[in-house]
Design goal:
The complex is a heterodimer. Chain A is α+β, with helices and mostly antiparallel strands. Chain A is built from eight helices and 20 strands. In chain B, strand 9 (about 160-175) and strand 10 form a beta hairpin. Classes of the chains: A alpha+beta, B alpha+beta.
Chain lengths: ~375, ~625
């Protein structure tokens, strides 16, 4: 499905035997360490300590039973404190009123996904300790579907966007989010474990996944695509920031859902600009428009009346002898694709046509009954 | 597909261990790119743990083989845990398959519809492999856990499916469906839990049972795992285990008060029932709950979590604050449901928290190359499958077609109103009664019991207990009580809550046994203030008075008696201790009398004269 090379290694084992790998064993093997792990606010570099500890101690000692916390628990505890629960608009079935967010500054900047949840005058953020704040939308990058919120707080635990891990396929990761709004108040967010299946670009999926973001993503082998999970954090097994869990994405063709996170690297510049108040939304470079583009009229197509926000692009009439008629387009066909571009409405179909020169053939994919039909309409410059 | 190779044969495990050892010796080998020895060792350990606990996993099917789920054995004589929503549709008798390919008859023992737990008993062996119970309070997010069970009823040879994951969250609260199937204080895991896993075990990395899987968050993908499963914590089940062994349909508890989380993170009482014990112990609206059941309370969910782990009737510590002053009380918890309501709900079609999806036609599946043929054919021991289980469509929640109860099950099943299986209540009653009787047989001593001794004040007292009258001579005066048509017309001595009638019932149980009461049943186990562990409880009713008798499960001695002259009132509590031998019978040297928050006094009997006639 993904054209990029599939580089996932076997099982849950991280790809690096040192570092993340070995702390991964400490974390997820049968051993649990006592003593030095007990402090909740442990020092940085615990993973390194764990590495040394595990390599130098004989196995039985490393497996000593303990009632307290484990290295994984430490990593998770610290990461969970930097994940917030966000509540806003929604509340209908399929339109949950909650999502997740990541604290990115001690004074209360929160990175999250741009969604309808934020379309409210009252967006609230609940911290790990149950403290609740009204949040202000600082800004958003619609191209990344990323937003930055601000709460009036200080001395908060947070991730540093400048220090994000760059992951490869096979890396062991943890996803922390408030999926299904399982946690409320001071209850810690949910943690899931998995592996980066592959690092690829969402662009490859245009036409099947509806998203403005086309850049690289970490595709995950765990189900992170759950209600409320978007905006949660992806960290390495050592707790290093790696990505933000993306919005729900469904493949419209086969009804599968993509589990992915956007690498922090992709978000950093925009987030910094938003925080600095200098953000200018950079729209996708507009395709060059031909001087004489194809039009519905030139192709001989009349669509149904465009009465809705997004009226599906159903064909109403086909003019006899027109390029559309010659290609076999029929009334009631639903135009899904122009070339490889999704046409979700009458408007977007017309917009797509504006990028095609009247002297070129137009490829359409239409839904006829239950069947997908590919048609090539001949050039319409004679019309 | 499992996420890592899960080998089940001995040779491959040995091979892996050898490989691990070799690799450990030849460090350069892994340094050049092979897996680190610690990785291989962790893998080998994981495989060994799974192999060790696998025999305890149980595949449960209804007697007709049409539906089912999973379970886990917890004792050598066949006690097994599962979900209420798995056991109930199976009816009173079910078939249980274990990993060695054998099928056992099993019978329902006790049901907890609110907590979604069922206790079953597998029949036919006294040496069942069984799981060790863990301590779910020591489970933390990130801990490795694995589930075993029979998702989608895949395993026609009862080999459990293993799914591995981490603890995603602990102390989760998942609200009930209606008033049943409330998952309080549960464990959330990303190990795959699918329909059919219900009732199966969640083990920690050491193979200790920490939960019973039973619930998932689902949404848009249909009823398959999305990395969010929930297990009933084993510590909650430990609280209920005694009650479940009673063969009853057990109820959960309510404090009789509502609480809400305030903005500042305080939990305040918003409503208290005046009939509740909490009200009698002084709890009022706007009081701040500090701790409950020994756990600090910071949110309303946290309160519900603690409450959900207790059976009806337990007495637990509650601390609350009012105007800066802290109050620590013991509060007795009432039931969530009325008895009839619970029965009605428990016997109705259970909510489909995890029904099984429609599976492909088994006959078609048999024809597909290499899929189910392997599961149909050879067993590890080469024996043919004992019964044919069709992994067909699951009419979940529908009554199974009537199948005659096997004779082995008939012997251990007795239907009675209010019970899942009254047979086991009788067994437990007999056990407790016989253990007490072994400490002293009073059944022949039907005459007047004369007891003399001192009060804790130092003054002398004399007590006469006979079938028709109880009398006490003490410095405060002489008091008499006789059982009559209205047992609670007076409860002498005044302020004692009914010391004389309570002593009368003590003698009545000793002399007449369980038959001396209108009704008696084994409640299960419950805590007693000031004592470690749980006590066996017999509840006896006589002419509208209810008595709770607490017995030491170790020695068999009677520890306490609580006499309730009326519902929704404080009982007269007698605590018995200082047992010593009198004429070959164990009798208490100290009887402490309490009512409500107050200690009424202490009787210290010096001599007993128990007449035969």
């Amino acid at each position: 499905m993904f054209q990029t090379k599939h580089s996932r290694r076997h099982g849950i084992l991280p790809d690096r035997p040192r570092g993340a790998g070995v702390s991964g064993i400490g974390a997820f093997g049968p051993s649990r360490l006592s003593g030095i792990w007990d402090s909740r606010f442990g020092i940085c570099g615990l993973g390194i300590c764990g590495l040394v500890f595990l390599l130098t101690l004989p196995a039985p000692a490393a497996r000593a039973a303990d009632p307290g916390s484990s290295p994984a628990g430490e990593v998770i505890d610290r990461a969970q404190m930097k994940v917030v629960k966000i509540y806003g608009a929604g509340g209908f079935r399929g339109m949950e009123h909650y999502q997740s967010g990541i604290l990115i500054s001690p004074d209360g900047c929160v990175l999250t996904v741009l969604s309808y949840v934020l379309d409210s005058d009252h967006v609230s953020v609940t911290l790990y300790d149950g403290r609740r704040y009204e949040a202000k939308l600082v800004g958003a990058d619609p191209r990344l579907e990323a937003a930055v919120l601000k709460i009036e707080a200080a001395d908060l635990p947070c991730f540093d966007l400048a220090k994000a891990a760059d992951l490869q396929g096979g890396a062991g990761v943890l996803a922390i989010s408030n999926l299904f709004n399982v946690a409320s108040g001071n209850e810690p967010a949910s943690v899931q474990h998995g592996t980066v299946s592959v690092v690829t670009r969402l662009e490859a999926r245009r036409g099947t996944f509806e998203t403005p973001y086309h850049g690289p993503v970490y595709v995950l082998d765990m189900t992170t695509n759950n209600p409320g999970a978007a905006g949660g954090v992806l960290v390495t097994r050592r707790g290093e920031l790696a990505g933000m869990l993306g919005k729900e994405l469904r493949n419209t063709l086969n009804n599968t859902w993509l589990n992915y996170a956007i690498p922090i690297e992709q978000l950093r510049a925009s987030v910094d600009a938003i925080r600095a108040g200098k953000f200018v939304a950079t729209p996708e470079p507009a395709p060059r428009k031909p001087a004489r583009p194809a039009t519905l009229a030139s192709l001989g197509v009349t669509l149904v009346p465009d009465v809705l926000e997004r009226t599906p692009a159903f064909v109403d009439q086909v003019r006899a002898g027109s390029p559309a008629a010659r290609a076999g387009l029929l009334p009631d066909d639903l135009v899904l694709l122009v070339g490889n571009r999704l046409t979700q409405s009458c408007k977007s179909l017309q917009q797509e046509l504006e990028t095609i020169d009247r002297g070129d053939a137009v490829k359409l994919t239409v839904l006829r009954g239950q069947e997908l039909v590919d048609l090539t309409l001949p050039a319409s410059d004679q019309e | 597909m499992s996420m890592f190779p899960l080998r089940t044969t001995q040779t491959s495990r040995v091979g892996l261990l050898v490989a691990a050892v070799l690799l450990a010796c030849l460090r350069p080998a892994w340094a050049q790119g092979g897996p680190a020895p610690a990785v291989l060792e962790a893998e080998a350990q994981r495989i060994a743990v799974m192999a060790k606990v696998k025999p305890a996993a149980v595949a449960i099917f209804d007697a007709a083989g049409m539906g089912g789920g999973s379970g886990v054995l917890i004792s050598p004589d066949g006690w097994a845990l599962s979900n209420f929503h798995v056991a109930r549709p199976c009816g009173n008798a079910m078939k249980c398959g274990t990993a060695d390919g054998r099928v056992y008859d099993a019978v329902v023992v006790g049901l907890d519809p609110t907590g979604d737990v069922a206790l079953l008993k597998l029949l036919g062996r006294s040496d069942f492999p069984h799981a060790e119970l863990g301590d779910s309070d020591q489970v933390h997010p990130g801990d490795a856990v694995f589930a075993m069970g029979n998702p989608f009823l895949l395993a026609t040879d009862f080999q459990p499916t293993v799914t591995w994951g981490i603890v995603s969250g602990v102390r989760r609260y998942q609200p009930p469906e209606g008033t049943l199937l409330e998952y309080a204080d549960c464990i959330q895991t990303d190990a795959s839990i699918n329909p059919g896993n219900s009732g199966g075990p969640l083990f920690d990395a050491q193979g200790r049972l920490v939960g019973i899987n039973g619930r998932c968050s689902f949404e848009k993908r249909g009823r398959v795992n999305v990395g969010v499963g929930y297990a009933v914590s084993i510590n909650q089940i430990k609280n209920f285990l005694g009650s479940l062994r009673s063969g009853r349909i057990v109820d959960h508890a309510t404090l009789g008060a509502r609480v809400a989380t305030e903005d500042q993170g305080r939990v305040l009482v918003t409503d208290v029932l005046e009939q509740s014990d909490a009200y009698r112990r002084g709890l009022r609206v706007d009081d701040e709950i500090i701790s409950f059941g020994g756990r600090p309370i910071t949110t309303a969910n946290g309160f519900k979590n603690v409450l959900g782990t207790f059976p009806k009737g337990w007495r637990v510590p509650l601390s609350f604050r009012r105007e800066g002053e802290r109050h620590d009380v013991m509060v007795r918890l009432a039931g969530v449901h009325s008895k009839e309501d619970l029965l009605k709900q428990a016997t109705a079609k259970p909510p489909q928290i995890m029904p099984l999806p429609k599976l492909p036609n088994p006959d078609e599946e048999d024809d597909s190359p290499g899929k189910s043929k392997k599961s149909k054919g050879k067993k590890p021991d080469g024996a043919p499958p004992k019964i044919k289980i069709k992994p067909g469509p699951m009419p979940f929640g529908l009554p199974a077609p009537p199948v005659p109860m096997p004779d082995a099950v008939k012997k251990v099943f007795q239907e009675k109103h209010g019970y899942a299986n009254y047979y086991f209540n009788q067994v437990e009653q007999d056990r407790v009664w016989n253990a007490w009787k072994a400490r002293g047989d009073f059944t022949g001593l039907r005459g007047t019991w004369k007891v003399a001794g001192k009060l804790d004040s130092g003054s002398a007292f004399r007590l006469r207990l006979a079938a028709a009258e109880a009398a006490l001579e003490a410095p405060a005066g002489d008091f008499k009580w006789a059982p009559g048509p209205d047992m609670t017309a007076n409860l002498p001595p005044p302020g004692s809550g009914g010391l004389l009638p309570a002593l009368h019932f003590w003698r009545r149980l000793a002399v007449e046994g369980p038959k001396g009461f209108d009704e008696i049943y084994y409640l299960g186990t419950a805590p007693l203030a000031g004592r470690e562990g749980l006590a066996d409880v017999l509840v006896a009713g006589y002419r509208g008075i209810e008595c709770w008798f607490y017995f030491d499960p170790g020695s068999g001695d009677l520890l306490a008696l609580e006499m309730y002259p009326a519902q929704e009132s404080d009982p007269c509590e007698l605590s018995f201790s200082g047992y010593r031998q009198v004429d070959g019978r164990s009798l208490p040297g100290r009887i402490e009398v309490r009512v409500g928050e107050q200690r009424y006094g202490v009787l210290m009997p010096a001599g007993y004269d128990l007449a035969k006639k």
